[in-house]
Amino acid sequence: MDNFSILIAGKAGDGIDKSSLIIGHIFNQVGYRIYIYRDYPSVIRGGHTFSIIRCSQYKITTHLDTVDVLLALNQDSIDFHKSRLGDKALIIYDSTSVKSDEGLGIPIGIIIKEAKALELMRNSCIIGAMCKALGIGMDVLEKVFRKNISREIDLNLDVAFRGFSQAKEFAKVEKLKQKPLPLITGNEAIGLGLIKGGLKTYISYPMTPSSGVLHFLAEVAIDFSLKVIHPENEIAVMLMAAGFSYTGDRVAVGTSGGGFCLMTEGLSLSGMAELPIVVVLGQRPGPSTGLPTYTGQTELNFALSAGQGEFTRFLVAPGDAEEAYYWSTISMNLAWKYQVPAIILCDKTLNEGTYSFDAESIGKIKGIEPLLWNKEGEYKRYQNTENGISSLAFPSDKDAIIKVNSYEHNEAGITIEDKDLTVIMQDKRFRKERYLLEELEQYEVVKVYGKKDASIALLFWGSNKGPCVEIGLKLGLKVVQPVVLSPFPLKQFKEALKGVKKIICVENNSTGQLVNFLKFYNVHIDHKILKYDGRPFTPEELEQNCANILTKVTL
To answer: What is the 3-state secondary structure (H, E, C) of 369-397?
Structure first.
């Protein structure tokens, strides 16, 4: 068993999310690389929820449709997921509440009563049974429990050991000679990347799927001397961020599509006033509230054009935890160097997915310092320079008069309506884009995987990285990932497509937003694979879609 999946399911409120993380840590301890997918309804209690924990000897960033072990805490868990079971799959279930003609039944309800434990501890019991069934020792189980459970640990262990003793061994999971890696969510990776980029203040109104960034940063705020603020709405979030940026704090905000709608006027203020702000934009299906706890890639058009008027923005779409960390740091650095808003475009799949995080694979990230005023001559907040970047001073500096303005303004920040000055100042702001594009040449802004000399390319953006890379390698395709989307690195993108005769584009939306965006650059896409049911692609599903296309492709 070097590549297998475990599905744990129950009703909302059963602690499925925490249980899946503990299972991930158990297999992490024996050397496996982990990816965890979470599926839950927007209701607080009562709806069906499940997680899929995929374990592999290799780095993975996507889950599979097929599961090898099903941990069922209620009848729905079997009824809803029978179609996912592989040929030799094992079902472990609570025999006091679930009926099944096959698998391993554990009287969890009876065990809970005998131990005088909480109902919520049923998941500890079934995890204990799973460990015995897969040949994982009680020492590993106890180590993980003690590190990851903060309340009533002895009672949880008692229940888990009772489940362990009631089970029997069905398979032996091989212990791999790999050291455990940290398990973190995409939201946590983004938070850590922002901190690496010098974050001082994070402001957010909770909105799935980016709420995890707020929660994580609030937990570590004291450790990193952060200000973490939860205002009354997203309008307040963005305007507070503008204020903190004006005073010199590196600031970021987090939201989803609905909240970003309310932020757009403030985003435009950031563009005109040249106030650097980083926006974490977690996508989910719309329109309106849509599917608030599911995934989608529906905000590319929105992020590219949000805000009235025209202004330079930096837009990046990372594909996994390492990229989320790396590009969150770079977004913070570039926003402050060029004094522009930056948007980290992510989605529920990335934000709430849990990954084995390999920090060593990222390498060193060079810090970038903003241009600060040298205190020579009269300070001009919007001085017209060759590259469009004006020096920064902050209100604590008694030698500078610092005026920022949402109106068109002159170099000193004074409101103007002169036609010639209007052109000069707009040109000044847009010159940054050319220099930003030149600087991006030192970064891997377009990535290539798979068979590098293949004539058919699989094109994707964002969290589709996992299934696309996996299937591209399997089918012998070139796999191309534009990471930076604004300003668009056309030179690097065309280089990545050299030798390609046919392009298949994979997106989680119904219109092909990247496909339509690329038309502006005269890039023709031959085939689209679109999914917009709120669920991410899996490798099996994507492989079938690609196979259907490849049988018809003629070069």
So the answer is: CCCECCCCCCCCCCCCCCCCCCCECCCCC
Alpha-carbon distance values, 475 to 186, 493, 536, 545 (Å) = 28, 22, 20, 12
What are the residue ranges in the chain where pLDDT is below 70? 1, 554-555
Which fold would CATH assign to domain 446-550? Rossmann fold (3.40.50)
* Helix (H) or strand (E) segment spanning residue 334: helix 321-338
Q: What is the pLDDT of residue 279?
A: 98
Domain boundaries in the chain? 3-166, 183-361, 371-443, 446-550
Between 153-166 and 108-115, two packed helices, what is the crossing angle to 10 degrees? Answer: 140
DSSP state of 302: H
Task: End-to-end CA distance of the chain: give it in Å, rounded.
Answer: 39
Beta-carbon neighbour count of residue 489 at 10 Å? 20
Q: Do domains 3-166 and 183-361 have the same CATH topology?
A: no
The CATH number that domain 3-166 falls under is 3.40.920.10
Structure tokens at 192: 């850590």
Listed in sequence order, the residues at least 6 apart from 370 whose beta carbon sits closer than 8 Å to its beta carbon are: 276, 336, 337, 339, 392
Q: What are phi and psi of 291, to 5 degrees?
A: -110, 90
Tokens of 108: 């969890």
In 3D space, the residue among 100, 54, 61 whose CA is nearest the CA of residue 77 turns out to be 100
How high is the pLDDT of residue 552? 85
| Contact by Cβ (8 Å): 125, 160 | yes
383 alpha-carbon distance from chain centroid: 37
* CA distances, 382 to each of 275, 408, 409, 529, 541 (Å): 11, 11, 8, 46, 52
Distance CA 238, CA 204 (A): 9
| CB < 8 Å & 24+ apart, contacts of 415-422 | none
Q: What is the rounded CA–CA span in Å between residue 508 and residue 465?
A: 12
* CATH number assigned to the domain with residue range 183-361, chosen from the 4 options 3.40.190.10, 3.40.50.970, 3.40.50.720, 1.10.1200.10: 3.40.50.970
